Amino acid sequence: MSDAPKKVVLAYSGGLDTSIILKWLQTEYNCEVVTFTADLGQGEELEPARQKAELLGIKPEDIHIEDLREEFVRDFVFPMFRANAVYEGEYLLGTSIARPLISKRLVEIAKATGADAVAHGATGKGNDQVRFELSAYALDPSIKVIAPWREWDLTSRTKLIEFAEQNQIPIAKDKRGEAPFSVDANLLHTSSEGKALENPAEEAPDYVYQRTVSPEDAPNTPEYIEVTFERGDAVAINGEAMSPATILTKLNELGGKHGIGRLDFVENRFVGMKSRGIYETPGGTVLLAAHRGIEQITLDSGAGHLKDSLMPRYAELIYNGFWFSPEREMLQALIDKSQEHVTGTVRLKLYKGSVNTVGRWSDHSLYSEKHVTFEDDAGAYDQKDAAGFIKLNALRLKLIGNRNAKFK
């Protein structure tokens, strides 16, 4: 092929599918392959990915395994949570927000190693192909992106297994049968889809859940925690300063223990179909409640309502793969401006699947007890002022009412 790549950087997990892709790239394009494996807090040992890549003929210097947990939370998760971003009312975008970082490193490694293409293992039915590729093209318009699932004829699990056996690719015993569901995980969430979960009328079996205990089995005693924020980002738990990734790790532990953050959700994919997923976002669910709690006393109503009205659009941009678009960056600038005084501490109650804000305080608070008290406010607010306020706001409604009465 005249336009065949000479060197490809592959997003490589070490699993069966991406190992098959690695070998397929070598045989289909007769090209060099560089592997990139990101530690985003998925909770798996990554050294086997290095060993598998070496077994498949990748030179040690062409195997890149990187711990990106801090960058992931600091530069992607936290900016998203400043917006309180939720897709279609419920989904906290755990998979969506990881893809631009992986794409960013794929492109950077391609540049550093002289590769002329990158490759991913996303299928032609899902959102991830869009997210990977839009991000890659935004960062390097000249990069070639290879999506094997849209090119090859390995259209079934049986054909994949046959290809693996023909090319001496190790196959875990449990991979010889149909997997009950597929899993994507990172520090923010775990996503499970497919097979046993494809019928949305059937309750998901309990074994699907991996990060959270069942709320029924959670402790019978509530736990109270305090989360401290500076300019919209969490910086401490119970008074102990922590890094972004450490904070999310700790909130995952606390939320998971109390059965917080489970979601059974049918979403609208960008490619047009609906899909059912089981999501677990224990730390993110706690973090969202905490961030909303501190905004309640530090964010002006006009700014807060504007921000809330823009949030669905911001969330949709992330879901659809437009993290590196100018419109997302414009919205981010507005959101970050709103967070200048979002500093303070929130007390939360964790109990059997629920997280509730029960206290919040801040030196930047806009809450004025003397203005809202039911006791004597010592002249802080003249209640007679409300009469004129109401008359002016009622004027147009009265005019409309008089007009309508004429035509009844």
Automatic annotation (TrEMBL):
Keywords: Amino-acid biosynthesis, Arginine biosynthesis, ATP-binding, Cytoplasm, Ligase, Nucleotide-binding. The keyword Ligase applies. Residues 7-170 form the Arginosuccinate synthase-like N-terminal domain. It is found in: Cytoplasm. It comes from the Bacteria. Residues 181-399 form the Arginosuccinate synthase C-terminal domain. Pathway: Amino-acid biosynthesis; L-arginine biosynthesis; L-arginine from L-ornithine and carbamoyl phosphate: step 2/3. The keyword Amino-acid biosynthesis applies. ATP binds at residues 11-19, 38, 121. PANTHER family: ARGININOSUCCINATE SYNTHASE. This is Argininosuccinate synthase. It comes from Paracoccus cavernae.
